[in-house]
Amino acid sequence: MKDLSLHILDLVENSLRAGASKVTIGVFEDTSSDTLQLLIKDNGKGMEEHVLKHVFDPFFTGQNKRKKIGLGLPLIKQLAEQCEGNVRLSSQKGKGTELIVTFKRSHIDLPPLGDIAETLVALIVANPEVEFEFVHNVDGVEWRFSSKELLEYLGVDSPEDLPAVLPAVKEWINFQEKSFREGGVNDEN
Amino acid sequence: MKIKSIEDLKRIKEEAQKNVALREGKAKYKVTVHMGTCGIAAGARQIMSAVLDEISRRNLKDVVVTQAGCIGLCDREPLISVENGSQKVLYGNLTPEKARQVVVSHLVNGQIVGEWVIHTE
Ligand code: FES
């Protein structure tokens, strides 16, 4: 994976497979502690303890022939450790799963965040029934949006209408990300 | 157009409402982009963007786009499938350019692009 936004896309797949109706994706950057944290939190069905123990094992495919958990978690763990960070995963049966990945922000091996807008748009279009909340915080300044609020605001209520608006939404997210990162003026939304 | 402000979004909202009014009936095609780990690493996200962009450019109103996980064909990623009623066509080894051509040929003109088909159901 060349950048963090692709890892995010891959990791959110686990939340979707767990039947989540809401997924929060957070990027928290902090200069004083020199950390970058990724948060992926869902309200899906959670994982059994015996599964939780093995999800970082790349060769674990779950017991009873169910679909494999994927390589997302082992890959992100490897990257976090390479960047002097760590991974925390907590899950409660029936309540959801929370993944927090911490990296040393200035680490030379830390890939860029990448095209976060493209990741969000891909998730939104493919899973219109799921609410995605995105939060990006740098040293206490943040911007956030919820896909549910945005689509309600845009008057989109059917999946067939999504392709027509999402390229524009992508531009909008890109612009918000860019002006936020450059510390420019932010739109109230 | 660069979407910068809330006003721009309002315009999109109006566009979207126009589109809602124009659309008739249910989706005719369902496009699924396979987004397992290998798929994503092989460029599935750009494929998704290319498909979306081409659909919005051509103003297609009867297509839904969705994602699915791994189907165990790593070496043929990125993959998409196009479903139309009972027919399902799986395309592999795509590039964003090829994906756009699939949209034009298959979704607009109803012509399957045989060259890139992995299998048909
Ligand atoms: S993601 Fe590799 S074969 Fe499915």
What small molecules accompany the polymer chains? Answer: FE2/S2 (inorganic) cluster
The largest sheet of chain B has its strands arranged as 2-1-3-4-5
Describe the biggest sheet of chain B? Answer: 5 strands, mixed
**Kindly state the mean pLDDT of chain B as a whole number?**
86
Overall helicity of chain A: 25-40%
The averaged pLDDT of chain A comes out at: 87
Stretches with pLDDT under 50, minimum 5 residues of chain B: none
Query: Kindly, what is the distance between the CA atoms of the first and last residues of chain B, rounded to a whole number of angstroms?
Result: 40 Å
Strand content of chain A: 15-25%
Give the beta-strand count of chain A. 6
Count the helices of chain B. How many? Answer: 4
Radius of gyration of chain B: 15 Å
Percent range of helical residues of chain B: 40-55%
Question: What does this protein structure show overall?
Answer:
The complex is a heterodimer of chains A (189) and B (121). With 189 residues, chain A is of the alpha+beta class. Chain A is 36% helix and 25% strand. Chain A is built from six helices and six strands, in the order H-E-E-H-H-E-E-H-E-E-H-H. Chain A has helices at 4-17, 49-52, 72-82, 116-126, 147-154, 162-181, and strands at 22-30, 35-42, 86-92, 96-104, 131-138, 141-146. The model of chain A is unreliable at 185-189 (pLDDT under 50). Chain B has 121 residues and is α+β, with helices and mostly antiparallel strands. Chain B has helices at residues 6-22, 37-41, 44-57, 96-108, and strands at residues 29-34, 63-68, 80-84, 87-91, 117-120. In chain B, strand 3 and strand 4 form a beta hairpin. Chain B is globular. The complex binds FE2/S2 (inorganic) cluster. FE2/S2 (inorganic) cluster (FES) binds at residues 36-39, 70, 72-74 of chain B. The site of FE2/S2 (inorganic) cluster has 8 residues of chain B, from helix 2. Chain A: It is an enzyme of class 2 (transferase).
